[in-house]
Write a structure and sequence with these properties.
about 475 residues; alpha+beta; Glutamine Phosphoribosylpyrophosphate, subunit 1, domain 1; Rossmann fold; six-stranded antiparallel sheet; binds iron/sulfur cluster
Length: about 475
């Protein structure tokens, strides 16, 4: 769970693209970005085409804050658009890194929206700079957009340029590209780290990070974009699709945190309902870590479905444990230290009448640093809880990640430094139980993909995102490669 940055597990960016018969693509994209707001709140943008030109508006903040009526009206009527919600990891939180990126090149222009993390961006940036290309931004997404344009000039089409660029990339990328003729190109990395799906209706076609955006905009879910697939959408239909991105890495797959935490519960990803996955996680947690208790409570928001599953399996009643203040903006400030310490209760207050004198099974999605869990447990005990047995619907989060979290050092992860017993004592619970990796995979078994679980299991390659260096353990010795 994340409360205003105190437990900072990365939320993912969101991408959206649309090609329809009517000139309302900008407005539909606005609605889609609202539906995808949970994937990123730092900034957002919309690009549309008109008369072979690309118009883009973007800014820092939530979709509703950035896109006032006046700002939306600056976008000309268009049948094609792409959009993006940003959660900054690579490149920092700057207006220059807000997407879509518009790239002009010798024979045209494109706009690009990207979700993921490109591991070899620094290396590619250096190569492109040698060829005289200048950058405004610092993010890996700008490198991607520039690379597509660079190869589009060489190969004579944006689609060919995108295939060549995508085959040069290492890492996680779900991408939508708006071409100046209004066509949309969408592709997903060959490991399928990040979700991407397509939908249609009588007006045309849309592509989105999550199916909840298709539902919200009146599109029927058609299918997921396959890992390694590139799709060209023209005249409201799929004009072409092929499995053309081939540089798959052994042992990777869909980021399992999409099911645990990142995605919205009403989305379907790779054939599995996110709600069902989380509910199953709760049921499996109840089997793996049973306990005698009076009530089960979920920590809002992403602990709620797993709590429902735990209650169903254990037969212990599910009770609302907290009232969440939904009206606090992303940027609220605390004028004093005392108020900072009360931040959790400002956003999430225990429902004393439900929990007083009760033995509680408290279900949450993850523990990162442990500071938020500690505050929540303290607040519950102050409100009269008798015992708290914490159950976590992901395994101990021990390792930093190349592709999905912004924890820059394993030192910041409590499970990397302490045993489960020690963590339980530190955060103040009577008992603590994490779902096993096998249990988590079992909960997601209806997904059509294999999974990445490296933040639980570790990897021989440890990557420090901040330094953009790859540290490779070989023959018991560590060496650092700049990438
Ligand atoms: S290491 Fe963890 S957070 Fe990163 S992609 Fe894999 S499962 Fe997701």
């Amino acid at each position: 769970m994340k409360i205003n940055g105190s437990e900072k597990l990365r939320e993912e960016c969101a991408v959206f693209g649309i090609n329809i018969k009517e000139v309302e693509a900008g407005g539909v994209t606005y609605n889609a970005l609202l539906a995808l707001q949970h994937r990123g709140q730092e900034g957002c943008g919309i690009a549309v085409t008109s008369d072979n030109r690309i118009f883009c508006q973007k800014g820092r903040g939530l979709v509703g804050e950035v896109f006032t009526g006046e700002k939306l009206a600056l976008l000309p009527p268009s049948a094609s658009a792409i959009g993006h919600n940003r959660y900054s990891t690579s490149g920092g939180d700057s207006i220059y890194n807000t997407q879509p990126f518009v790239t002009e090149y010798l024979t045209g222009r494109i706009a690009t929206s990207h979700n993921g993390n490109i591991v070899n961006a620094k290396e590619l940036r250096t190569e492109l700079k040698k060829n005289g290309i200048k950058y405004e931004a610092t993010s890996d997404s700008e490198v991607l957009s520039t690379l597509i344009a660079y190869y589009a000039v060489q190969l004579g089409s944006v689609k060919k340029g995108a295939i060549k660029a995508a085959n040069s990339l290492k890492g996680a990328f779900s991408v939508v590209v708006l071409c100046d003729d209004g066509s949309i190109i969408a592709f997903r990395d060959p490991d399928g780290f990040r979700p991407l799906c397509i939908g249609n209706n009588s007006k045309g076609m849309a592509v989105a990070s999550e199916s909840c955006a298709l539902d919200s905009c009146g599109f029927s879910f058609l299918r997921d974009v396959e890992p390694g697939e590139i799709i060209e959408i023209k005249d409201g239909k799929i004009a072409d699709s092929e499995l053309a991105i081939l540089n798959k890495t052994k042992g990777n797959g869909l980021c399992i945190f999409e099911y645990v935490y990142f995605a919205r519960p009403d989305s379907f990803i790779d054939g599995l309902s996110v709600y069902e996955a989380r509910y199953n996680m709760g049921k499996i947690l109840a089997k793996e870590h049973p306990v005698e208790a009076d009530i089960v409570c979920g920590v809002p928001d992403s602990g709620l479905e797993a709590a429902a599953g735990y209650a169903e399996e254990s037969g212990i009643p599910l009770v609302q444990g907290f009232v969440k203040n939904r009206y606090i903006g992303r940027s609220f400030i605390y004028p004093s230290q005392t108020q900072r310490e009360n931040a959790v209760r400002l956003k999430l207050n225990p429902l004393a009448s439900n929990i007083k004198g009760k033995r509680i099974v408290l279900v949450d999605d993850s523990i990162v640093r442990g500071t938020t869990s500690e505050k929540i447990i303290r607040a519950l005990k102050m409100a009269g809880a008798k015992e708290i047995h914490m159950r976590i619907s992901s395994p101990p989060f021990c390792h930093t990640c190349l592709y999905g979290t912004d924890i820059d050092s394993e030192e910041n992860l409590i499970a990397n430094k302490m045993t489960t017993h020690e963590i339980g004592k530190k955060i103040g619970t009577e008992s603590l139980g994490y779902i096993s990796i096998e249990g988590l995979k079992e909960a997601c078994h209806k997904s059509t993909r294999t999974f990445c679980t490296k933040c639980f299991t570790g990897d021989e390659n440890h990557y420090d995102i901040k330094k953009n260096e790859l540290e490779v353990e070989k023959d018991g010795r560590k060496s650092i490669f700049s990438s």
